[in-house]
Specification:
heterodimer, A: 151 residues, alpha+beta, Aminopeptidase, 4 helices, globular, B: 457 residues, mainly alpha, Ribonucleotide Reductase, subunit A, two-stranded antiparallel sheet, two-stranded antiparallel ribbon, 4% strand, disordered C terminus, binds coenzyme A, binds fe (ii) ion
């Protein structure tokens, strides 16, 4: 791990509309795609639901990471409210400094306070970084298989 | 956030619903399509919400460290009176903005944008409801001539033209108003609510976090369409051209600045434990944030025009065009947005009723100034009563016929003064001079039998 970012001026807080550009930029660095429309829609969506489950990490005033989750129930036959981690990203220059973990801890704290008992997510089988991250948070592969087809 | 929800006593709840039926007729439309636009979300709740994790102790001011007030009667009368004015001004803004939004909602080109604004309006209704909770769940009669109940009635009888703050007395002409208002004026709301999170009156402090959460959505409801319009303008797929957006910024930003109160005021609210920033501190933070918003819009424009540029190159190009004020890579400086100078078109505060251009150039001649305003403000707004009042007052001020105080007070406010001895109808009244620098003044609005009642409008 590089020098931990905790204790340096790292703040984790709910996302706001002004963060959209920074999130787009992180996504662009991670995946090489500029997707303003996508992120506007996502940010507005989370703001209309539960902003405390859609978090950004700000290091010395700059947004350097985000983790968006959505608390839902009654899906896939699951009858308990579930926090679905939908997307996570930390700026490549700031990874391995504990930022992702801080984001996740705050999310889990919020979810517990809301009475949520399960956190779930889907990870591509080739995405070892995200898989390692999820495992480090205590999430284990679950006995579910994703099915899909192209239309 | 752990929240306690509550409803007003039936008579107040019913009064709010009646108000909604009259001024917010599209509310049922929102409820009908809620599931379509806000799938699997909690249904909208017209109720008050109090955050249960509000600190017990006063956080700022003379009595910092003491227990927060839970009842109005625990405050000094002067203090309670001032808080009551803050609550009333806040309530007035919430109801006022619904009346404004409703006026041009149907001009939305895009159903989704329209439904997001409808949700904003419903949440503003809830914010007004929240303020009524504060007014009706406590006994203010010890500290105020007006009972909480009378203030509720007064606020519910206000119309565009009679609200406490100027920004809520301007009618909308186009859906651009709805959107720019949400991005610019709701942003002031965010600052006010954030400052009031420390409020020494605990029910007020506890009201803020749920309101702030909703406010964050309001800002997105404004900024997201703006970003999309800007990108469409850049590619020629014009919905709203940049020049039009600029005119609406010129219309609303000065009103936003004024909502913070006089630049020299706000200290008393800190001493009394109601807010944690002076007017100027909050104004500066707001201005910086608006600056970032405009900068972001410009970068969206440049990247849509020149897709080959990366984010850093776009940032540098925007900065360079604005700094040198010259065409670069095919983009003219006028194509980009800018914040109007803080002295431009001000009607309150430090720069009140002075003649400055959007770019901060002074005018000597009133006619030149008038022509400039006509060139930089939205055309339909020039025909408004509100703008006409301002121009009239400016003209008379420049001619030496009236002084500044009179000019500031001259924008009449339509107030139904049910406690006014001269009439029970809606009348123009002239507000009683300015209250303490920068604080909302309508609390002092009084219907004087002298020349102040000009007949119903
Ligand atoms: C995965 C990611 C979120 C982790 O964030 P981070 O701030 O670097 O993580 P942290 O420093 O907080 O590390 C937390 C844990 O995750 C684990 N982890 C992080 N990166 C990992 C990797 N590449 N492989 C395996 N495990 C990893 C760490 O081992 C650490 O565990 P530990 O605390 O037990 O040692 C970040 O690397 C990232 O954003 N990756 C790209 C994500 C992406 O492509 N998103 C697409 C949409 S934008
Ligand atoms: Fe509001
Ligand atoms: Fe709002």
């Amino acid at each position: 791990m590089d020098a931990p970012a905790t204790g340096t001026g790292l703040i984790v807080r709910p996302v706001c509309e002004m963060d959209t550009a920074a999130i787009e930029a992180i996504d662009e660095r991670l995946l090489g795609r500029y997707r303003p429309h996508h992120w506007e829609t996502r940010v507005r969506y989370y703001l209309s639901r539960d902003p405390e489950a859609a978090l950004v990490a700000e290091l010395d005033g700059e947004v350097v990471g985000f983790l968006f989750a959505d608390i839902r129930g009654w899906e896939f036959g699951l009858d308990e409210p579930t926090a679905w981690i939908e997307v996570v990203g930390v700026h490549p220059d700031q990874q391995h400094r504990g930022i992702g973990r801080r984001l996740a801890e705050q999310l889990l704290e919020h979810c517990r306070a809301q009475g949520v008992r399960y956190v779930r997510t889907m990870v591509h089988q080739d995405d070892h970084a995200i898989a390692g991250f999820m495992r480090s948070l205590g999430l284990e592969p679950a006995p579910w298989t994703a099915y899909a087809r192209e239309l | 956030m752990q929240i306690a929800q509550d409803r007003l006593d039936k008579k107040y709840h019913d009064a709010v619903e009646r108000w909604q039926q009259r001024y917010f007729p599209d509310y049922p439309l929102l409820l009908h399509y809620w599931e379509k636009y806000f799938p699997r979300q909690q249904p909208f709740c017209l109720c008050s919400k109090l955050d249960l994790s509000t600190p017990e102790e006063i956080q700022v001011g003379r009595r910092a460290g003491e227990k927060k007030f839970t009842r109005a009667e625990q405050m000094e009368p002067e203090q309670a009176h001032r808080l009551l004015q803050i609550i009333k001004a806040q309530a007035s803004t919430e109801f006022g903005s619904i009346q404004q939004h409703q006026g041009s909602l149907d001009k939305a080109q895009d159903d989704e944008e329209k439904f997001f604004v409808l949700r904003v309006m419903a949440e503003e209704l809830r914010h007004g409801y929240q303020m009524f909770h504060l007014l009706t769940r406590d006994d203010w009669s010890q500290v105020s001539e007006q009972k909480g109940e009378e203030i509720v009635e007064e606020v519910l009888s206000m119309k565009t033209g009679s609200h406490v703050l100027g920004a809520f007395n301007i009618e909308y002409d186009s859906f651009v108003d709805n959107i720019v208002f949400a991005a610019v004026i709701d942003r002031v709301g965010k600052y006010q609510l954030t400052m009031q999170k420390v409020c020494a009156y605990k029910p007020m402090a506890a009201s803020m976090p749920p309101m702030l959460q909703e406010e964050a959505f309001h800002l997105a409801a404004g900024v997201v369409p703006l970003r999309r319009w800007v990108r469409k303008a850049a590619t020629g797929e014009i919905t709203v051209p940049m020049a039009v957006i600029q005119r609406y910024l010129n219309k609303w930003v000065p009103r936003g600045y004024e909502m913070f109160g006089h630049e020299k005021g706000g200290q008393t609210n800190i001493e009394l434990g109601f807010k944690d920033m002076t007017n100027l501190q909050a104004l500066r933070a707001y201005q910086a944030e608006l600056g970032r918003m405009v900068e972001d819009l410009n970068r969206n424009y440049v990247r849509a025009r020149l897709p080959e540029l990366g984010p850093e190159e776009a940032r540098a190009l925007v900065a360079s065009i604005q700094q040198h004020r010259e065409r670069q890579r095919g983009i003219e400086p006028e194509e980009l947005l800018r914040l109007p100078d803080e002295r431009f078109f001000r009607r309150r505060g430090l720069w009140s009723h002075q003649m400055w251009s959007v770019d901060g150039e002074p005018f000597r001649d009133f006619e030149d100034y008038r022509r400039h305003l006509a060139a930089v403000l939205p055309e339909p707004y020039l025909a408004h009563r509100d703008f006409g009042e301002y121009l009239g007052a400016m003209r008379r001020l420049q001619a030496g016929e009236i002084d500044l105080k009179t000019a500031e007070a001259s924008a009449p406010r339509l107030v139904r003064t049910s406690y006014c001895p001269c009439s029970k109808s809606v009348r123009w009244i002239v507000e009683e001079g300015q209250a303490a620098a920068g604080e909302p003044t309508a609390g002092g609005a009084r219907c004087e039998p002298r020349a102040s009642c000009h007949g119903a409008a």
